[in-house]
């Protein structure tokens, strides 16, 4: 049996030799022994990758995990280095983080906040993880972010799109690279006005939970600002699988555009149903009827098959981007796994590099030092062009992609085409924007734990 | 002793011993060995063991004694949790009032639901309870978002300042017991072993021991006899002039309050509530825990809860790299083969193992894990046919 | 008016899915007295029969096309389905296009076999066991089946479209004299409804008019007496289990174009189908069908925005609310028999 990578504290590894046989009880409280939660003392540092491995988002979680493994390989100097070569900050040496070899533990969020917190807690309490990252829904992201704030570790959010994560539920120890509902709305509206005109009547179907609310609000606000009219907004239960009774009345309402504020399985089903009803072949108010999906996920869009063709939506990143960073990432991911990465994979990979880089620049693993290094950090070369990690709300600001379902896909991965790269200025908002929790929203103070 | 028969008292002592020494028992493997992956002696999981133990003990009072199968018990746990967190957000960060609030809220809700659902029996009752729980879940997730926080649930925020607390501006309140933080731990380091003694765990453990003691008393009381009579023959019971309804309702409310206690403790240990705590799969889980451990036995539900939570938290964390490390001493081909065989059952495949465990237990151990224990005990005692141990009616396999 | 007609159509369509699944479930309840939590999994396996068949039909060999490149810039691999080689491109594409209807032929024997093996291998041993044991074992089985499917097909939904000929929708409004586009309904959903009606009718006719069906009905009423008459009722019950599995499987096959199938679709339907069966009344086949259509229609009405404007969230709870009201006013559901699963 070789030496395990999964020990709890580096300290133990070294004390094991002297302590064995002697059984000297050393009683101490956790608080007094370390400067901050899970301070790595041995030659390794442990990161916690908390992704959905069971449940409807398991495939998305699996892709995130692949990206994490790739990131760890690159951080430890393996592989071709991927985005480390294109990253504008050159602090990372390929020798782990601060000279410590990067190791990781994995867990299953089940896309449930209780399970996600249990898994994150076990990483913190049992495995000594110094940073938690991952997830594929905003409910989980908010719950785990709050936990990391309490426990005094850094949380690098995975796929979470709700405004709340860096809006009303923002936390000093939590950071989000992924874009959000507001940005989707702001990026989509001009493109839609361009493509479909400024005189449209929109009908919203909205998933009846927090993410749905913020997305509906954002898309509604930005399209109405362009001159569109919102005919109706209808909430659909999360557990709904057949959307026929919501889609059938759309034509009767006089609307000529349907906005599906749905994600994942909901999106696949509602879009499939809408296309089945032949909505896209209809003419209303003398215009072709159109469908819009504000947030696209390529992995899930695959489930809707040919139904996505020609349908507008937004995305954080897509593998067909041609900047150097994206190309390097697609190359090393594609070489290792045989298919291009999803946007979830991209965001988790980037988050890992950003965290490692911040530790290097801060010269410490202490959460407050890392947070300070990340705040207002400007970088480039990780896809999406120049990016700012804003200090006021820990949200990344970067270009947002407006994408469209491809008419003639050349492969099973080639589902979306980039219509426009919306420049970052257009999607930037004030930290106290009303959609982001207004003036009341506060990060609180960073927590080192211990 | 304590009003218990000798045998029950021994059982209580054993359970007390196991619970209090859990930090040792659950951490049998040295930290630097590969087997450390199987250690379960960290605060969060130990807390979950006893909390879900309480939940299952309570469920068993209803299902094991009266035979009424509630398929919506998670609603009481969820509503208790919401009660507790609001208590903490508004009144006091002390866990005691929060837990009491959880028990009371769950009890009242159970009274209302029980009053309606107990008009029916059998599967009609099960579906009625399921309907109430699913409605609670759906509403908490959507239209009740202002009260429940919807999908993201409720946490204690820096903007919360409870009535009886002296938090500094911007400080996030922490659950405590008269100033003792629930997350405070002592760590004992002996050689290569590390044992964690967590304040929250011991509070939950004491609550579980009290619940367990109360359950024994109920099982052995005339009231418990009455409940068993309802299970065996309700009609005959009413012919003898006894009205079963009040007794069943009492059992339902008690078991709802147990669920509330579990919910309150969950909030006390980890200040967060989400609506999926009330989803039907959560209700189904406690049913499975009870059956897996052994319906109608005292200790069974606790074992079942432990088994399921152990798999959920330990098995799901084993990934391919861990497997490769375990088998690194083998020749490459053999190592890969073993990893390929085992991989589907761990990590993301932990559900599969759980499903197989359910089937194996119910096929080979009709009385659940308790029967497994009894069989082993019998084998150790030299195959003395001894069917007296345990109050449960032993069932025989169908074949 | 148009809105109401439309929601009735929707309700009939939804209801036919509920009724089909509930019918199979109640057949097993009624004949075997087994609480089968794996019934949703049977529905799911049926759907994956369609997925599997379309995978078989699109089995391909790859050729390297030097003129195109893949995402890494290497020469692209192009997949050529074998059916193209065998039948030519046009016929081959037509066969692939018709994969879902063809799957019906494929699914019936597969589902019968799955049902037979399940009953003989597992369920048989649980007839005399308490319902709690039945729940645990069938729930375990459902998880195992689900995980096996997930292992081979992944967790994401898999698109399985209907044949080209059935895409688009029929304009009822124009046919009934309303304005066009007001009442439209997809062809495939109409087919689903007709298909469900035929299957339900066939099951009833089978039980009503054949000797086999008569014996089964007698067995449902009084198993012991039928056994004493020297009839091997067990064998017939096994066949009934296979039949119930086939009904669930067919419901699944036909459902695939409506919603892309995924491995957990069975669990999504499981709770709902239990509610339908119980609201219909235990042991009653017509009750299950009636309850299926009734809940389908009510659910559709509750999702109208005019209704939601008055009672927000009604669409979330309507099925459960109706279930509670019915079970409180009618102790054994709509048409339940006394003494079935009441203890």
From TrEMBL, chain A:
Residues 44-406 form the Leucine-binding protein domain. Residues 1-35 form the signal peptide. Keywords: Amino-acid transport, Signal, Transport. InterPro entries: BCAA_transport, Leu-bd, Peripla_BP_I, TAT_signal, TAT_signal_bac_arc. Coiled coil: none annotated. SUPFAM superfamilies: Periplasmic binding protein-like I. GO terms for biological process: amino acid transport. Belongs to the leucine-binding protein family. This is Leucine ABC transporter subunit substrate-binding protein LivK. It comes from Shimia marina. The lineage of its organism: Bacteria, Pseudomonadati, Pseudomonadota, Alphaproteobacteria, Rhodobacterales.
UniProtKB/TrEMBL annotation, chain B:
GO terms for cellular component: plasma membrane. The keyword Membrane applies. Its main location: membrane. It is a multi-pass membrane protein. InterPro entries: ABC_transp_permease, LivM-like. Signal peptide: none annotated. Keywords: Cell membrane, Membrane, Transmembrane, Transmembrane helix. It is found in: Cell membrane. One of its GO terms (molecular function) is branched-chain amino acid transmembrane transporter activity. The chain crosses the membrane at residues 12-29, 49-71, 91-116, 123-144, 199-219, 246-266, 286-305, 352-370. This is Leucine/isoleucine/valine transporter permease subunit.
TrEMBL record, chain C:
One of its GO terms (molecular function) is transmembrane transporter activity. Pfam families: BPD_transp_2 (PF02653). CDD domains: TM_PBP1_LivH_like (cd06582). GO terms for biological process: amino acid transport. It is a multi-pass membrane protein. The keyword Transmembrane helix applies. It is found in: Cell membrane. Its main location: membrane. The keyword Disulfide bond does not apply. GO terms for cellular component: plasma membrane. The chain crosses the membrane at residues 16-35, 42-64, 95-114, 190-216, 237-258, 270-295, 307-328. InterPro entries: ABC_transp_permease, BCAA_transport_permease. Keywords: Amino-acid transport, Cell membrane, Membrane, Transmembrane, Transmembrane helix, Transport. Belongs to the binding-protein-dependent transport system permease family. LivHM subfamily. This is LIV-I protein H. It comes from Shimia marina.
């Amino acid at each position: 049996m070789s030496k395990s990578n999964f020990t709890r504290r580096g300290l133990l590894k070294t004390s094991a030799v002297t302590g064995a046989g002697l059984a000297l009880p050393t009683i101490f409280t956790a608080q007094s022994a370390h400067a901050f939660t899970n301070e790595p003392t041995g030659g390794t540092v442990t990161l916690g990758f908390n992704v959905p491995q069971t449940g409807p988002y398991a495939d998305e979680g699996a892709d995130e995990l692949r990206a994490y493994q790739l990131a760890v390989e690159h951080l430890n100097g393996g592989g071709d280095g991927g985005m480390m070569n294109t990253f504008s900050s050159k602090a990372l040496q390929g020798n782990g983080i601060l000279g410590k070899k990067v190791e990781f533990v994995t867990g299953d969020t089940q896309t449930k906040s209780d399970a996600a917190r249990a898994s994150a807690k076990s990483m913190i309490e049992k495995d000594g993880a110094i940073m938690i990252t991952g997830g594929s829904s905003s409910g989980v992201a908010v719950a785990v972010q709050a936990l990391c704030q309490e426990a005094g570790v850094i949380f690098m959010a995975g796929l979470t799109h709700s405004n709340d994560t860096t809006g009303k539920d923002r936390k000093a120890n939590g950071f989000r690279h992924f874009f959000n509902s507001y940005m989707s709305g702001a990026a989509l509206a001009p493109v839609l006005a361009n493509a479909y005109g400024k005189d449209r009547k929109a009908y919203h179907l909205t998933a009846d939970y927090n993410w749905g609310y913020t997305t509906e609000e954002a898309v509604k606000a930005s399209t109405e600002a362009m001159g569109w009219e919102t005919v109706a907004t209808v909430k659909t239960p999360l557990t709904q699988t057949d959307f026929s009774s919501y889609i059938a009345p759309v034509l009767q309402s006089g609307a000529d555009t349907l906005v599906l504020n749905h994600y994942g399985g909901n999106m696949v089903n509602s879009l499939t149903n809408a296309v089945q009803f032949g909505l896209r072949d209809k003419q209303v108010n003398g215009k072709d009827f159109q469908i819009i999906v504000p947030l696209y996920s390529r992995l899930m869009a695959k489930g809707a098959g040919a139904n996505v063709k020609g349908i507008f939506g937004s995305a954080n990143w897509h593998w067909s981007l041609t900047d150097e960073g994206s190309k390097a990432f697609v190359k090393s991911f594609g070489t290792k796994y045989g298919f291009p990465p999803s946007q979830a994979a991209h965001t988790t990979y980037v988050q890992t590099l950003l965290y490692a880089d911040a530790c290097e620049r801060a010269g410490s693993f202490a959460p407050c030092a890392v947070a300070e290094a990340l705040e207002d950090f400007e970088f480039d070369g990780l896809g999406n062009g120049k990016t700012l990690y804003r200090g006021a709300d820990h949200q990344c600001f970067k270009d947002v992609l407006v994408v469209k379902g491809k008419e003639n896909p050349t492969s099973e991965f080639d589902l979306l085409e980039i219509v426009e790269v919306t420049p970052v200025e257009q999607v930037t908002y004030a930290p106290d924007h009303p959609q982001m929790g207004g003036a009341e929203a506060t990060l609180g103070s960073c927590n080192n734990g211990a | 002793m304590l009003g218990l028969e000798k045998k029950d008292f021994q059982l209580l002592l054993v359970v007390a011993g196991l619970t209090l020494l859990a930090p040792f028992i659950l951490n049998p493997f040295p930290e630097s060995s590969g087997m450390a992956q199987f250690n379960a002696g960290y605060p969060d999981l130990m807390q979950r063991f006893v909390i879900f133990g309480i939940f299952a003990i309570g469920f068993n009072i209803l299902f094991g004694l009266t035979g009424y199968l509630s398929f919506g018990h998670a609603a009481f746990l969820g509503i208790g949790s919401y009660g507790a967190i609001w208590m903490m957000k508004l009144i006091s960060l002390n866990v005691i009032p929060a837990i009491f609030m959880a028990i009371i809220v769950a009890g009242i809700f159970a009274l209302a639901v029980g009053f309606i659902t107990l008009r029916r029996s059998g599967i009609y009752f099960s579906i009625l309870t399921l309907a109430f729980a699913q409605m609670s879940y759906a509403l908490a997730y959507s239209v009740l978002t202002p009260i429940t926080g919807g999908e993201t649930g409720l946490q204690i925020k820096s903007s919360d300042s409870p009535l009886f607390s002296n938090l500094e501006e911007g400080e996030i309140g922490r659950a405590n017991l008269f100033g003792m933080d629930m997350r405070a731990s002592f760590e004992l380091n002996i050689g290569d072993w590390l044992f964690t003694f967590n304040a929250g765990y011991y509070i939950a453990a004491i609550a579980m021991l009290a619940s367990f003691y109360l359950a024994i008393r109920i099982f052995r009381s005339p009231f418990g006899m009455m409940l068993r009579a309802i299970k065996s023959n309700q009609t005959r019971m009413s012919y003898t002039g006894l009205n079963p309804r009040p007794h069943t309702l009492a059992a339902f409310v008690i078991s709802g309050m147990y669920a509330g206690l579990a919910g309150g403790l969950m909030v006390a240990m980890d200040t967060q509530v989400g609506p999926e705590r009330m989803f039907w799969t959560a209700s189904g889980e406690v049913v499975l825990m009870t059956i897996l451990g052994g319906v109608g036995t005292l200790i069974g539900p606790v074992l079942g809860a432990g088994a399921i939570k152990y798999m959920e938290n330990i098995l799901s964390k084993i990934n391919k790299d861990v497997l490769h490390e375990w088998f690194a001493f083998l020749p490459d081909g053999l190592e890969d083969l073993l990893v390929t065989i085992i991989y589907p059952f761990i990590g993301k495949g932990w559900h599969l193992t759980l499903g197989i465990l359910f089937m194996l237990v119910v096929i080979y151990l009709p009385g659940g894990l308790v029967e497994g224990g009894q069989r082993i005990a019998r084998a150790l005692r030299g195959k003395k046919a001894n069917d007296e141990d345990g109050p449960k009616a032993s069932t025989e396999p169908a074949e | 008016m148009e809105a109401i007609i439309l929601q009735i159509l929707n309700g009939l369509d939804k209801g036919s899915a509920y009724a089909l699944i509930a019918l199979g479930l109640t057949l097993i309840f009624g004949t075997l007295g087994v609480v089968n939590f794996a019934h949703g999994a049977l529905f799911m396996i049926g759907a994956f029969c369609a997925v599997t068949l379309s995978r078989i039909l699109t089995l391909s060999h790859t050729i390297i096309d030097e003129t195109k490149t893949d995402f890494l810039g290497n020469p692209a691999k192009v997949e050529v389905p074998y059916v193209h080689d065998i039948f030519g491109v046009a016929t081959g594409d037509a066969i692939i296009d018709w994969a879902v209807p063809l799957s019906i032929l494929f699914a019936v024997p597969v589902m019968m076999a799955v049902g037979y093996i399940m009953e003989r291998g597992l369920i048989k041993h649980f007839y005399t066991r308490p319902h709690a044991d039945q729940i645990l074992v069938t729930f375990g089985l459902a998880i195992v089946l689900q995980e096996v499917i997930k292992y081979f097909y992944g967790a994401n939904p898999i698109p399985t479209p209907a044949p080209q000929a059935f895409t688009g929708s029929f304009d009822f409004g124009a046919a009934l004299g309303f304005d066009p586009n007001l009442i439209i309904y997809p062809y495939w959903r109409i087919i689903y409804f007709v298909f469900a009606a035929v299957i339900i009718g066939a099951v009833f006719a089978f039980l009503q008019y054949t000797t086999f069906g008569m014996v089964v009905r007698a067995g449902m009423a009084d198993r012991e007496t039928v056994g004493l008459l020297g009839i091997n009722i067990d064998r017939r019950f096994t066949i009934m289990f296979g039949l119930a599995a086939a009904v669930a499987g067919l419901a699944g096959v036909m459902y695939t174009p409506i919603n892309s199938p995924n491995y957990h679709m069975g669990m999504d339907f499981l709770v709902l189908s239990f509610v339908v069966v119980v609201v219909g009344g235990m042991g009653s086949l017509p009750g299950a069908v009636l309850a299926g259509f009734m809940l389908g229609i009510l659910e559709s009405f509750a999702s109208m925005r005019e209704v939601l404007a008055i009672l927000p969230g009604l669409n979330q709870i309507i099925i459960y609310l109706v279930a509670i009201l019915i079970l409180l006013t009618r102790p054994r559901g709509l048409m339940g028999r006394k003494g079935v699963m009441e203890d």
